[in-house]
Amino acid sequence: MTASSTSTTAWTITRAPVPPTLDHPDAWALHGAVAVGLAVDRASWGYDDIAYTAQYLVTKLREQEYATRLRLVATPADLDGRTPSAQDVVGTAHVIMPRRGNEHLVEYSLVVHPEHRRAGAGRALLAEVERIAAQHHRTTLIAESDHVGEPPATDPSALTPPTGSGRIAADDPGAVFARFHGYALEQAERYSVLHLPVDGGVLDRLHAEATGRAGTDYRLHAWTDRIPDEWAEQVAGLNTRMSTDAPMADLDLEEDPWDVDRVRQAESDIADAGHGYLLVAAEHVPSGVLAAFTMVEYPWDSPEVVFQDDTLVIREHRGRRLGMLVKAEMLRRLTALRPDARRIHTWNAEENAHMLGINVALGFRPTGVAGLWQKKLDRADPTA
Questions:
Q1: Which residues contact 226 (CB under 8 A, 6 or more apart)?
Q2: Cα separation of 259 and 130, whole Å?
Q3: Cα–chain center distance at 16
């Protein structure tokens, strides 16, 4: 597939092609995007646990059924006539346009190599993202930014979203960039890390307390890498409920529908990206309904790293400590599945006090804040 490009005075923005293999010449843009992500994460966090691999990026680009996914890269416009390479990439943006629900929406993240900031590459990437949004009749853009640490509550200049929960330093470059371009901070997510192993006595106590509160009406199930056929439809339903039951602040989000085919596609994508997963669910025995679940994902070639994906207790079953129950059970099982795991990374809405309380009790510690910024386009012009 041939890449498509647009140029500014200093920068060329290229839509990365989907290469047949990562050794193919067309893979240069993805390898460049990975290098930028590694540099950004090492500069911000001091580690590269959460940086994307090229295999992960190409897997996401190949899955286009449920969302149009694009990867943009910025390279110097003047390369003396030569073809760009991975070493020329100075910035990258990941663009997602849902295709089944939320057809008004563009979600994206944008980063620039620390050595190439304030030179216009970020502005060029953003202009292309917004041009694509207008071209596809999308009227709401939601962008994500990462921020190390969190200002104290006593900082009068800190930015606080309308939810009143979470803070971002007003002079943080990501915040300055977003506000300058007309984006409003709508939600803050706490980025937390749990260092493993969790003290066995603490975990046993929390598990026992949650089991006692839940009572005999609930029983646990755990699955790795594939949901049994008899439960796949209910897991799809839980994923749909994530889009309506989880705190969303005033973000312009609608229901994100899942079905069994999408569950199977997600499983296939996880495997193709070189990851495995563990899902723990709580069944309400009298009704046979899955009332809660939590899921973690782990890269096979990075045994120390685990990512916490979704955790949800559906509204009808809250107040029974099911959130703690499924997460404590997950940590017990993870010890056997990934004995070398040392860190779990998670993100939670700052206004989700209940889930944050569970995480803090388990030992998660605040590390940073992710800002979710929203902008409404005045028009969606297909000629833009």
A1: 267
A2: 30
A3: 20
The segments of the chain whose pLDDT lies below 50 read 1-2, 380, 382-384
So what's the pLDDT on residue 80? 87
157 in the same domain as 106? yes
Count other Cβ atoms within 10 Å, centred on residue 315: 11
Contacts by 85-88, CB closer than 8 A, 24 or more apart: 85/28, 85/32, 86/28, 86/29, 86/31, 86/32, 86/35, 87/32, 87/35, 88/32
∠ CA 142-143-146, nearest 5°, is: 145
Is the CB of residue 378 less than 8 Å from the CB of residue 140? no
Q: How confident is the model at residue 278, as a pLDDT?
A: 98
Residues 325-366: tens digit of each pLDDT = 999 999 999 999 999 999 999 999 999 999 999 999 999 999
Q: In degrees rounded to 5, what are phi and psi of residue 195?
A: -90, 125
Residue 367, in any domain of the structure:
no
Which pLDDT score is estimated for 291? 98
Residue type at 21? T
Q: Which pairs from 95-99 meet CB under 8 Å and 24+ separation?
A: 95/68, 95/69, 95/70, 95/71, 95/129, 95/132, 96/67, 96/68, 96/69, 97/67, 97/68, 97/69, 97/70, 97/133, 97/136, 97/138, 98/66, 98/67, 98/256, 99/65, 99/66, 99/67, 99/68
Confidence (pTM)? 0.94
Q: Say yes or no: 133 and 59 in one domain.
A: yes
Distance CA 255, CA 242 (A): 9
322 and 248 within one domain: yes
CATH number of the domain enclosing 321: 3.40.630.30
The model's pLDDT over 274-319, given as tens digits with 9 standing for 90+, comes to 999 999 999 999 999 999 999 999 999 999 999 999 999 999 999 9
110 within some domain: yes
